[in-house]
Amino acid sequence: MAGVEEIEVVVAHRQRATLRVGDVFLKVDVDPAHADVEVRAMAMAPVPTPAVLWREPPVLAIAAVPGEALGVLGEPSTASPAAWAAAGAAVRRLHDAPVPPWPGPRLDDLAAELDEECAWLLANAVLPAEVVRRNREIAEAALRPWEPVFIHGDLQITHVFVDGDEVTGVIDWSEAAPGDAMFDLAVLTLGHEDRLDDLLAGYGAGADRDVIRAWWSLRALTASRWLIEHGFDPDTPGCEFDVLRARAREA
User: Fold this and answer.
1) Total number of domains in the chain
2) pLDDT band at 251, cuts 50/70/90?
3) Both ends of the chain: CA-CA distance in Å?
4) Percent helix, strand and coil across the chain, each rounded to 5?
5) Model confidence at 179: pLDDT above 60
6) Is residue 241 part of a domain?
7) Which of 57, 126, 157, 160 has the largest count of CB atoms under 10 Å?
């Protein structure tokens, strides 16, 4: 890394920080279990992932992947329909792979979290009560038994990199676990609902659009307090609050 001109802070909050130094990402996490999962998941995943360069807890060093992120939350994605389809095909390969041996999210815990976060949103009046209520109803469709598959667990649009119409890397695997396939598809298209058809063209059969829509609501409801408390703004145009308002208008 000799001759590096600057250090880029990619993300930083009380729980973790990621710095870019040249072509190396340094991930610092207060919980070493996150890095344990990330390293194990990347070794198992049948999709392109970053190379692990070294690990010295609490720091994990990984190589940058080529290409550009599929998009950014709050901005239209400029990636082609073929790139979105390639992302869908990559997600399908992941979901068809052997399930990780560690535990994943529990349905009861998700339901309890949804109740708690909706109560917080209402108590703090950060959104109209009707928006919270309607999205809470929509989210119910996600709270059903599922057949666990290998999920990324935090498949934000910024975590999938493409070069032209090819997926070149999927990053940030610390939430990987057995889970609901529809959750990954929903997180990837959150705020980019207009690209769902392109994604599913590559993913293939088996996607449940109603459940994906339910996960859009559930994800946005349960993430909002964390974002606010860690210095992010879910009310930025195109982000979580806009997703919730859009779902409520569809009622």
Assistant:
1) 1
2) low
3) 53
4) 45, 20, 35
5) yes
6) yes
7) 160
